[in-house]
């Protein structure tokens, strides 16, 4: 196994990556490029979040850099920040919600590390969605990912969606409707 090349955070922040990469303790880590199911789920969620942004007082941010600690930057597939949060280039205030969409080749174990970073930062809720297997996961109180009930929500906010409804929107997009 090759030893990763470590770079300072300043170099990461001043370099453009296409697609953008996570930065974990000095190592630039490529993210899994989304395939069609991933992209359609990301679009469906972004559309739902965008249409509810005023009522929920949020701003949906697809693929936004989020600094989860001094030496960690993650790029969630979609996150929701408070509409009143500062318009900084990088999110430093914990988002209300971070959503990760499983792509082919990714596992729940891989997602667990990402979820742990978000929760350690203080993100209120994390959803992990698998559009191919049609499964949704949320962290348990101990942080372990577990299957989600049909209702996906963020406690203490008006944010509440039915997984069935999200899948219906996803299916419509997949069918070209």
Describe this structure in words.
It holds the Pfam family Uma2. InterPro entries: Nuclease_put_TT1808, Restrct_endonuc-II-like, Uma2. It comes from Granulicella tundricola (strain ATCC BAA-1859 / DSM 23138 / MP5ACTX9). This is Putative restriction endonuclease domain-containing protein. This protein is of the alpha+beta class. It has one domain: Alpha-Beta Complex (tt1808, chain A). It contains 5 helices and 12 strands. It has a 6-stranded mixed beta sheet with strand order 3-6-7-8-9-10, with helices on both faces. A hairpin with a 5-residue loop joins strand 9 and strand 10. Helix 2 crosses helix 5. The longest helix has 16 residues. The radius of gyration is 16 Å and the shape is globular. The chain starts with 8 loop residues before the first helix and ends with a helix. The mean pLDDT is 94.
């Amino acid at each position: 196994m090759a030893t990763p090349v470590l770079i300072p955070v300043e170099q990461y922040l001043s370099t453009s990556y296409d697609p953008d990469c996570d930065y974990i303790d000095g190592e630039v880590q490529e993210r899994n490029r989304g395939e069609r199911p991933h992209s359609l789920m990301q679009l469906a969620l972004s559309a739902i979040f965008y249409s509810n942004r005023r009522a929920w007082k949020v701003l949906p941010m697809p693929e936004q850099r989020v600094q989860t600690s001094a030496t960690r930057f993650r790029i969630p597939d979609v996150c929701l920040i408070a509409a009143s949060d500062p318009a900084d280039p990088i999110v430093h205030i914990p988002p209300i919600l971070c959503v990760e969409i499983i792509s082919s080749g990714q596992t729940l174990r891989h997602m667990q590390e990402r979820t742990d970073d978000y929760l350690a930062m203080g993100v209120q809720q994390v959803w992990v969605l698998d559009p191919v297997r049609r499964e949704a996961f949320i962290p348990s109180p101990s942080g372990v990912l577990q299957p989600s009930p049909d209702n996906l929500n963020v406690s203490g906010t008006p944010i509440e969606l039915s997984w069935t409804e999200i899948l219906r929107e996803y299916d419509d997009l997949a069918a070209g409707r």
